Amino acid sequence: MEQRVQNINMSFFLRASILSLALFFSAFCFPLDPDRIKSPSYKEGRYHNIDPDEQLQGKSPIDIMKWKFFGPKDPPTVQGLTEELPLVLERTAKDLIAPEGKIRVVWFGHATVWISSTENGKTVNVLTDPIFESPIFVTRLVKLPIPKEALPQVDFVVVSHAHRDHLDRDTLRFLKNKNPKLQILLPSGMKSFSESEDLGQTISQELGQATIKDSVKITFLPAHHWSRMGISDTNQYFWGSYAFESQNKIVYFAGDTGYSSHFKNISERLGKPVDLALLPIGAYKPRWFMKYAHIGPEEALLASKDLNAKSFAPIHWGTFPLGDDLPQEPLLDLRQRLAFPESPDIKGLYPLYTGISWGVKDGVRILPWTIGSGIDL
């Protein structure tokens, strides 16, 4: 009888172990696209940036432990910093739709931005790097400005790269199920991934590839970054940024990126000024650890000049605690570098929000907005 109990316990242990391993590999192992090796950006066994990128091979657990436990830590960039979270302005579905002849841009937090364009009665709605909950092992600090169930129709989702705070499978499946005609634009090398994750209509893109619907043109462009979703796929999916062209205006979404020559490369590719650049500024500290993959406020200002941007609005801050910077530190760091008019300049904001004003740096207008803020172009 005792032997039988032991056998039952051992059998249960084996089944539990096998199930645990299966769950682990299903969560951390993903299929690789065999066609990735045909990409002009893939060589020597991985995808590459335009500039040398030996520092962007992916961070090992040892690197992360060194950062977390041994430092060094960067000094505060702003005096009197607190843990205060950014304000979230609540929005309705009606608030998100661009009026006729306009492009409306509303920030949802992190790198998730709503871009709506209406021309000749036809509206096209786009979401960038949507993530509605929290990535694994990370806490979301602030809520969405609108419940996900209340979102209007989404025509396109664009994904900049395969990191879990930018490519969220649950969010993508939710959007696919809610929007039967949704198209998801992905970087090169993600066809097999999208099929295994049942993401619906997807397009895996190379640099310069464009997708057009009505008056909106979406072009996949370079970034200076890296990718990883699982345990054995580092830099086996590409990464990039996007330009949205509509009504003779350009909105540029940088995704995640370090600073490199790719910003000037993009300006040359586009051949005309960027009307609004959406540039990341958060998860930028400590610089010794983050600088190769994440620009901070100072480099975002440089990037806006490289892009020949008329204006830029900062994203990728205040939503997830991914760096040593406090929730509002990236924005406050940016603000102290700008010159502001004596009276608020709120032209181009929708809806009007007292206290938000465009600043200026080297001829570029910069909007230190908050989650739920919007801009009409």
From TrEMBL:
What are the annotated GO cellular component locations?
cytoplasm
Segment forming the signal sequence: 1-29
Q: Reply yes or no: does the keyword Transport apply.
A: no
An annotated Gene Ontology molecular function: hydrolase activity
Superkingdom of source: Bacteria
Alphabetical list of Pfam families matching this protein: Lactamase_B_2 (PF12706)
The record's listing under InterPro entries reads: Metallo-B-lactamas (IPR001279), RibonucZ/Hydroxyglut_hydro (IPR036866)
* Keyword field: Hydrolase, Signal
Q: Which residues form the Metallo-beta-lactamase domain?
A: 125-317
Q: What is this protein called?
A: Zn-dependent hydrolase
